[in-house]
Amino acid sequence: MSLTKPVEVLKKILRIFINKYFVTTVAFIVWLVFFDSNSLVERNKLQEKLDILNLEKRFYLDEIKKDSTLTWQLLSDSTQLEKFARERYLMKKDKEDVYLVIDTTADLHQ
Question: Residues 41, 83: one domain?
Answer without folding.
Answer: yes
